[in-house]
Amino acid sequence: MTATPVKPAxxxxxxxxxxxxxxxxxxxxxxxxxxxRGELRVQACAACGVLRFPPRPCCPHCQSFDSEWRRMSGRxxxxxxxxxxxxxxxxYAEQAPYNAxxxxxxxxxxxxxxxxxxxxxxxxxxxxxxxxLRIGAGVKVVFHAMxxxxxxxxxxxxxx
Length: 160
Hints:
Layout: E1 15-16, E2 19-20, H1 29-36, E3 41-45, E4 51-52, E5 67-71, E6 75-82, H2 90-93, E7 100-105, E8 108-115, E9 138-145, E10 151-157
């Protein structure tokens, strides 16, 4: 009699060298598909045109269920930032101090995305000297390919 291997129950999404991957749901799946192609797009209501993030099935302004995905310029400014402190997951602790930034998109100021400010798309999370971060600093998007075909937006300073 041979034992049948037991698959562990899914808990957290798989990680990329210990870094957490985003959870992709039906509403947000197009965002991640466009990111994989190197495009920053935001969901918009097809009825009233209002941009919305995070993605959701119904427009909070007019209650329409019709939506489209509009391409953004990929430029923004740092709206806020933080340097996470321990305790951190091991892969994050190895890169501390690193930043987590909130970026306000220039072509959609009510839309803010969370990510990391780095020196290149594939740089470590701690690649930018903490003294370089400033509220209002101009940034532009780059895309980092992670495990399982997931690509995440990251941010570069417009003036390195």
